[in-house]
Write a structure and sequence with these properties.
Length: 439
């Protein structure tokens, strides 16, 4: 009998992430640093799986998309053209008593949330992280760590068009780090100063932009559902006029019901022709597209599905988390989609003091490892080993027992149903590949 508990609190997720090796605080031994996190052995696999399936689904399996990996450091003029130098700001207030700084929209009643002190008038604070190129730190060498990956795709529009010979509509996709000097990083990895984005810039003919915007909203929403996120924990939210970014004609957010409330997972914007026109103006390079059908030049409109890898990872973790009662005992299980699970199979010997069982289990693990992420573990009792793997979301556990030496078969235990099936050792690999949908 299994009882499920639907919602988890953030402390439980943060503690699981630390305890099991998904996410650690950055520079923890020095007391930590705000807004930066380190992904441990399982976190890095989860994140990599998210990026890989996104890349596979959005780039490799589509004929209308190509990839790009642009530099984090770009020409300063890029950020002038994009509007980030002028407009990428948050209004902030300072406490005149304790000197702490807060985002103006996160302060209630006009007093300091920490000490109740009087606050200054709001001032605009640019969120871009500054750096200097070369040995001299002056205005001429000033640039920024990119606050979004998008600009790399706009400034390479002509290069990509030349080499790919794509016709509208087509997209450029990129995954990479972005940096923002968030005044109040919070909610674990939800709002950080260093994060990864998965962005698509999809170039379309003006006039077809609204239709493409809706298509991308639907496509991206279903992508999260496809990889296991519960539909009822996802919703769309249209930006109000005063909330729209300076480049956007319309934006829809895909929101997830995190333990701290509905919050943005991904934004899909209609950026119009703003970006290509701005870069044409600032660089002097013509970024128009020659439309063979009409024999005229046009400036494409851009639809931009822009998601965060870290936010997706957090939402997938939260969504997968279950506490269940199984025969009066508690078990914590991450019901991650098998494609996302950091480890696909874990192999154990039932008795670790039996060298023949250990050798056979290690041999099975090393063969499986060629096909999928596989763990070998013999450092605890079988019940404990199952619980460990449940907590990191491993779909299959394989146990080698004394009978295995005679019948040349092992037990495969399914994470979700906990059902155990006996499978001949030569069939284990294909059985798992089949159940993972890889055959
Ligand atoms: N190019 C458009 C753009 O950057 P955005 O809404 O500012 O739009 C897109 O960011 C996505 O990047 C967000 O939906 C979120 O998933 C992620 N993101 C933005 N700021 C973030 C932060 N401080 N920490 C973690 N992820 C962030």
């Amino acid at each position: 009998m299994v009882e499920e508990q639907p919602m988890v609190d953030m402390d439980t997720i943060v503690s699981l992430c630390k305890r099991r090796g998904f996410i650690f605080q950055s520079s923890e031994i020095y007391g930590g640093v705000g807004g930066s996190w380190d992904y441990g052995p399982y976190g890095v696999e989860l994140k990599r799986n998210i990026k890989n399936i996104w890349w596979r689904d959005m780039v490799q399996r589509r004929d209308d998309m190509v990839g790009l990996d642009a530099g984090i450091l770009m020409h300063t003029r890029v950020w002038e053209a994009s509007g980030h130098v002028e407009s990428f700001t948050d209004p902030m207030v300072d406490c005149m008593n304790c000197k702490k700084r807060f985002r103006a929209d996160q302060v209630e009643n006009g007093v300091c949330p920490e000490c109740g002190g009087q606050l200054t008038e709001p001032r605009l604070f640019n969120l871009m992280l500054k750096t200097y190129l070369g040995p001299v730190e002056d205005d001429a060498s000033l640039t920024y760590l990119r606050p979004e990956t998008a600009q790399g795709m706009f400034v390479n529009f002509a290069n990509v068009l030349d080499v790919s010979r794509k016709k509208l509509p087509f997209g450029i996709a990129q995954i990479g780090k972005a940096f923002r000097n968030e005044i109040t990083p919070r909610n674990f990895t939800f709002r950080t100063r260093e994060f990864e984005q998965m962005e698509i810039e999809y170039f379309v003919k003006p006039g077809t932009d609204e239709e493409w915007h809706q298509r991308w909203v639907g496509e991206r929403f279903e992508w999260y559902v496809k990889y296991g996120m519960r539909r009822e924990f996802l919703r769309l939210r249209q930006h109000e006029g005063d909330e729209l970014a300076h480049y956007s004609k319309a934006t829809q957010d895909i929101e997830y019901l995190f333990p701290f409330g509905w919050s943005e997972l991904e934004g899909i914007s209609n950026r119009t022709d703003f970006d290509l026109r701005q870069h044409t103006l600032f660089s002097g390079r013509d970024l128009a597209y020659f439309d063979e059908e009409t024999g005229t030049h046009l400036v494409p409109y851009i639809i931009e599905p822009s998601g965060g890898v870290d936010r997706a990872a957090l939402a997938f973790l939260v969504d997968a988390y279950r506490e269940e009662k199984v025969r009066k005992a508690n078990r914590v299980v991450l019901r991650l989609h098998p494609e996302l699970a950091p480890i696909k199979a874990a192999v154990f010997p039932l008795l670790r003091n039996r060298p023949e069982l250990v050798a056979l289990a290690k041999q099975i693990a090393s063969e499986l490892r060629m096909e999928m992420m596989t763990a070998y573990d013999d450092t605890a009792s079988i019940g404990r080993l199952y619980r460990r793997q449940d907590e990191i979301g491993t779909p299959f556990c394989i146990t080698v027992d004394v009978e295995s030496l005679e019948d040349n078969a092992v037990t495969i235990r399914d994470r979700d149903s906990m059902e155990q099936t006996r499978v001949p050792i030569p069939d284990v690999k294909n059985t798992l590949l089949d159940r993972l949908g890889k055959l």
